[in-house]
Inverse folding.
C-alpha cells in the first residue's frame, strides 16, 4: 500500500465506477442475448454491429423520458429511495479488490522483521480503494443489508398496495437470506484465520488450492443466498410482475427506474467479486501467475484473472435466471429457514471439528458432499414436504362447496 495520494485515489475511484457502470450496461445486453438464445430468438441486433450499442440507446432512453412523479407519493422518500439503493451498492465496492493485492503483514517474531514486512507492503500498489481492512467481508455484508432501506422507502413512499407488498416481500427475503449468507462463509474465515479479503486471496495463492475444494457446500449455500439477496430469478418475488405489476418500483419511471434496476446488477458484480475471492482463489490461478516476473504484466494478468472469474459468476447467474422457474414465496421462506440455515450450521460444525482435531482439510470435502447428498435423500424421503408443504383437502357435507383446510 503506497502512501496516501488523493490523485491516485480519485483515478482509482473514477476507473472503478466507470468500469462497474459500463459492465452494468452490457450485463443488460448479455441478459437479453442469453434469454433470446435460450428461447430460440435473435435478441437485440439493430443498434450497432450485432446490437453492441443497444446499452447506449437504453441509457439515452432513460435520460430523455419524461420525469413523472405521481401526486399521491411522499416526494422526499420517493426521490431518496433510488439514491439510497445505488449509494449502498456502490459503497460496498470500496473494499472489493479488483486486481492484484498484497496482504498486510501479520505478527512477526521481532520488531525489525515487522518493520521490514511493513516497508515492503507500503511499496506496493493494491487495486482496492480501502486496502488492509480487517473486517472487509463484514463491511460488504453490512452495506448489502442496508440496501433493504432503499426498497422499503420506495415501496412505502409510493402509497401503492403493489409497491408496499413488494417492499414487505423484499425486506423479509433479504433479512432471511442474510443468515445463511453469513453462515456459509464462516468456514472460510476459520480455515484462513482472517476476514481480510487480501489475506484470504494470499492464503489460496500460497497453498495453490481454491477454498471451494474444501467448502463445496458453503460455496453452494453462498451462491443461492447471493442470488436470493440480490432478488435474481428464481428469487425475484419482490417484483414478480404476474402478482405485483412491478413490485416496489411500480410508480417509478425514467432515470429513477433506471437507478432501481441498476442496483440488481451492481449487487451481481459485487457478489461475483466476493465469490471469486472467497472460493475461487481471487487473482490467483493455481500459482501460474507467479511465473510472470514483470510486475506490470503480472498486475494486468492478476486483474484479468479476477475479472474473468467475476464474469463467469455473472454468466452463471444469467443462465440460472432463464432456466429455473420462480419459486412461490412460502417455498422461498421455507428453503431459507428449514433447509439452508440448518445445512450452514452443520457445515460450520464440520469445520470446527476438523480444525479442533487437526484432520486433513480434504475431510471437509467429504463431509460437505455427505451433507449435500443427505439433504437430497431427505427431500426425496419426505417428498419435499419441507419446502412445498402439502395441503389436506377434506370433503364437506353435501351442498357445500369444497374447501381447503
Amino acid at each position: 500500500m503506497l502512501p496516501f495520494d488523493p490523485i491516485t485515489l480519485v483515478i482509482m475511484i473514477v476507473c472503478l465506477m466507470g468500469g462497474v457502470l459500463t459492465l452494468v450496461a452490457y450485463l443488460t445486453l448479455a441478459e437479453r442475448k442469453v434469454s433470446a438464445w435460450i428461447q430460440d430468438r435473435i435478441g437485440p441486433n439493430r443498434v450497432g454491429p450485432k446490437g453492441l450499442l443497444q446499452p447506449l440507446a437504453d441509457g439515452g432512453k432513460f435520460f430523455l423520458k419524461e420525469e413523472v412523479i405521481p401526486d399521491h407519493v411522499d416526494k422526499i422518500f420517493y426521490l431518496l429511495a433510488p439514491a439510497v439503493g445505488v449509494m449502498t451498492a456502490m459503497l460496498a465496492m470500496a473494499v472489493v479488490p479488483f486486481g492484484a493485492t498484497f496482504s498486510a503483514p501479520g505478527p512477526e517474531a521481532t520488531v525489525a522483521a515487522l518493520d521490514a514486512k511493513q516497508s515492503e507492503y507500503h511499496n506496493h500498489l493494491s487495486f482496492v480503494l480501502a486496502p488492509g481492512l480487517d473486517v472487509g467481508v463484514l463491511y460488504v455484508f453490512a452495506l448489502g443489508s442496508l440496501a433493504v432501506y432503499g426498497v422499503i422507502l420506495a415501496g412505502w413512499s409510493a402509497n401503492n398496495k403493489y409497491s408496499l407488498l413488494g417492499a414487505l416481500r423484499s425486506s423479509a427475503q433479504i433479512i432471511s437470506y442474510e443468515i445463511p449468507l453469513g453462515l456459509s462463509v464462516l468456514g472460510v474465515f476459520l480455515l484462513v484465520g482472517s476476514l481480510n479479503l487480501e489475506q484470504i486471496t494470499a492464503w489460496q495463492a500460497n497453498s495453490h488450492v481454491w477454498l471451494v475444494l474444501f467448502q463445496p457446500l458453503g460455496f453452494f449455500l453462498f451462491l443461492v443466498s447471493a442470488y436470493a439477496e440480490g432478488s435474481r430469478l428464481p428469487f425475484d418475488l419482490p417484483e414478480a410482475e404476474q402478482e405485483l405489476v412491478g413490485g416496489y418500483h411500480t410508480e417509478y419511471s425514467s432515470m429513477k427506474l433506471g437507478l432501481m434496476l441498476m442496483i440488481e446488477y451492481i449487487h451481481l458484480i459485487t457478489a461475483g467479486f466476493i465469490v471469486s475471492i472467497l472460493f475461487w482463489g481471487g487473482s490467483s490461478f493455481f500459482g501460474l501467475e507467479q511465473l510472470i516476473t514483470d510486475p506490470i504484466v503480472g498486475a494486468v494478468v492478476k486483474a484479468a484473472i479476477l475479472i474473468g472469474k467475476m464474469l463467469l459468476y455473472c454468466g452463471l447467474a444469467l443462465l440460472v435466471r432463464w432456466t429455473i422457474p420462480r419459486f412461490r414465496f412460502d417455498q422461498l421462506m421455507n428453503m431459507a429457514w428449514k433447509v439452508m440455515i440448518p445445512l450452514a450450521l452443520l457445515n460450520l460444525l464440520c469445520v470446527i471439528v476438523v480444525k479442533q482435531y487437526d484432520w486433513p482439510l480434504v475431510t471437509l470435502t467429504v463431509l460437505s458432499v455427505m451433507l449435500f447428498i443427505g439433504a437430497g435423500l431427505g427431500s426425496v424421503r419426505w417428498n419435499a414436504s419441507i419446502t412445498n408443504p402439502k395441503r389436506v383437502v377434506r370433503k364437506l357435507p353435501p351442498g357445500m362447496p369444497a374447501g381447503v383446510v
Summary: The first strand starts at residue 393 and ends at 394. Strands lie at 393-394, 403-404. The chain has a mean pLDDT of 83.
